[in-house]
Amino acid sequence: MDTQGRRNVDPADQWVFDPETGSYQLRLDPQPDAGDPSTRRVPAQPGERRDRREQQGTPQDSSQGAPPGTDTSRRRAAGSGSAPPASRRKAKPKKSKKKKALIWTAGSIGFVLVAVSVGGYLVYQHFNSNISTVDTAGIGSKNATSSGPVNILVIGTDSRVGLGKKYGDAGSVGHADTTILFHVSKDRTNATALSIPRDIITNIPDCPTKQKDGTIKVIPGTDNVRFNTSLGQDGRDPGCTMRTVKALTGITPDHFMMANFEAVKDLSTAVGGVEVCLAKNIDDPDSHLKLSAGRHTIEGEQALAFVRTRHSVGFGGDLSRIQLQQQFLSSMIRKMKSGGTLTNPTKLFDLANVATRALTVDTGIGSGTKLAALVQNLSKVNTNNITFATVPVIDNPAEKVHTTVVLDETKAPELFSMVKQDISLTDVAKKAKAAKSAAADKLKGTKAAAVNVRVEIYNGSGVFGAAQDTVSWLQNSKGVTRSTNGGNAAATTATTKLQYAPNQADQARALAAMMGLPASALTEGTKDAAPRANMTLTLGKDFKAAGTPITAPTTAPSGVQKVTANDTSVCAK
Questions:
Q1: What is the rounded distance in angstroms from the CA atom of residue 153 to the CA atom of residue 238?
Q2: Where do the H-state alpha helices sit in 421-496?
Q3: Of the residues 61, 348, 355, 555, which has the maximum number of CB atoms within 10 A of its CB?
């Protein structure tokens, strides 16, 4: 009992089912009893039938004066043989399959994001004190929700700060050891999670970072270094990693979520363990993972060892470890969706507590209510339509002994373009099918040989040197030797346009295929052109770089490593 006569109540017992939303609502503040302003009551749990006055020690069975409809009057009626009045409590409606699907959330894609998604509806101001925030000094969104696509950067840091010597490198500020760019489509039907290899060689841009005294310090960028040095090193914060991802992929993260080793252990334990599969026995002296071939449910220290293992699987490097991590995260998503966690208020409360303690996020989502709003906004994606993929890379040609990788310039731009243009890696996007069909109809027919394509290119993109870069790329990479630079267009244009005569249609189809032009970019004239006349290509603001398709492909490039979150057949080899 507290000083007001109330009994102490476990917060996990304060969830009240809301039949309008099909979910539980947290009621932390006791509400006054309309019948007795001096008393306080805790919201009733579904199915709870005890009178709150009885719980608070209020006399319930006086000989006279019991108000009609109270438990006392009903017991008196029952004793006299009269039928008690019908209960005014409404029956708890059954959740439809659709509502059950909406309760689990799409945000569960990273070590942290997985738990936040499930706890999204539960993360109220009660959990605010758990959350750590970083002001990313100008990159990202200040808004927690969006009506458009959403990009969340999930960062697993290998920082040892506060962990002692348990994992080696005691006191290390850490790196961006695991990085996943999680893209949720505008229509919320699908999501793509791009794993970025930590050992990819890239350029880290200048990074404004907010200091403790509120000032902004610009940390100089560095070229040709490992991606993982975008965090921790030289005082770089998660905003630096966000800027590095933008420079590498052309995709701007809206928010970030970061967690360390302890978070992996705590989250895997909070969900009751995660099932993983091994195609062989593993005894890794570095990660300390020791498991036999087959399926196992792991949590805590063993879960952390699993996601850190790389020397005993695949080719023994970070790319093989990424596949282990993708298997682990996919399984965690499935566990939370099917394991009763989402329909059990106590489990949800515990998981939300763990998630918010594990989180460091940007200030745009740096409160319980903002996190709840974000995840509720992203709540419709089904596991069937969540695809994990790895950014395409090749061995670093500058090394004799390959320890790092570089972007695969033939595949990575296409994959990035799909994400930027909101094209799903799974077969759910009707707009992608429609676009592919329209392009096929308009561009149906023969294509001219590259050497016979004549085109004059104008720069209306606003990107300096775009016309000449495109001419050089067409001539050197595609064999379009009759391409010329027309200089700047009269004005910048929103989209790229190719104008051609009816007798140049075969040339237009060839050029469109080379450059990835959408059907909407092609404009056919009414009169035939002279035999050696040029087509006119005007680059618009949708132009990103020479060789990067203007429109995204509708399928992922061949050879890109990817797996959907609902695939239970994956076993580490």
A1: 9
A2: 430-442, 466-473
A3: 355
Q: Where are the alpha helices (DSSP H) in 51-125?
A: 52-55, 71-79, 97-103, 113-119
Distance (Å, rounded) from C-alpha 179 to C-alpha 256?
10
Residue 531: other Cβ atoms inside 10 A = 7
Q: What is the C-alpha to C-alpha distance for residues 416 and 248, in angstroms, rounded to an integer?
A: 10
**Residue closest to 389 by CA, chosen among 201, 556, 174:** 556
d(CA 542, CA 466): 12
Which of these ranges, 60-64, 345-349, 441-445, has the smallest mean pLDDT? 60-64
3-state class of 541 per DSSP?
A: coil
Beta bridge mates, 290 = 283
Distance CA 355, CA 263 (A): 8
Token representation of residue 224 = 């040709």
Strands 482-488 and 562-564, by their bridges, are: unpaired
Q: Confidence class of residue 75 from pLDDT cuts 50, 70 and 90?
A: very low
Task: Identify any residues that bridge with 55 across adjacent strands, giving them in sequence order.
Answer: none
Q: How far apart are CA 45 and CA 245, in angstroms?
A: 46
CA distances from 7 to 15, 55, 319 (A): 16, 7, 54
From the list 327, 387, 428, the residue with the least C-alpha distance to 560 is: 387
Q: What is the DSSP letter of 400?
A: S
- Residues 498, 456: contact at Cβ < 8 Å? no
| Rounded distance between C-alpha atoms, residue 32 and residue 128, angstroms | 25
Which tens digits make up the pLDDT trace of 467-498? Answer: 999 999 999 999 999 999 999 999 999 889 99
DSSP conformation letters of 487-499 = EE-SS--SS-EEE
DSSP letter for 546, please.
T
| DSSP one-letter code for 200 | B
Q: Where are the alpha helices (DSSP H) in 50-184?
A: 52-55, 71-79, 97-103, 113-119
Task: Return contacts of 335-342, CB within 8 angstroms, 24+ apart.
Answer: 335/271, 335/272, 335/273, 335/274, 335/275, 336/104, 336/108, 336/114, 336/117, 336/118, 336/271, 337/104, 337/383, 339/271, 339/272, 341/118, 341/271, 341/272, 342/100, 342/103, 342/104, 342/118
Query: How many other CB atoms are found less than 10 A from the CB of residue 245?
Result: 26
The strand ranges marked E within 20-115 are 23-26, 31-33, 36-41
Three-state SS at 226: strand
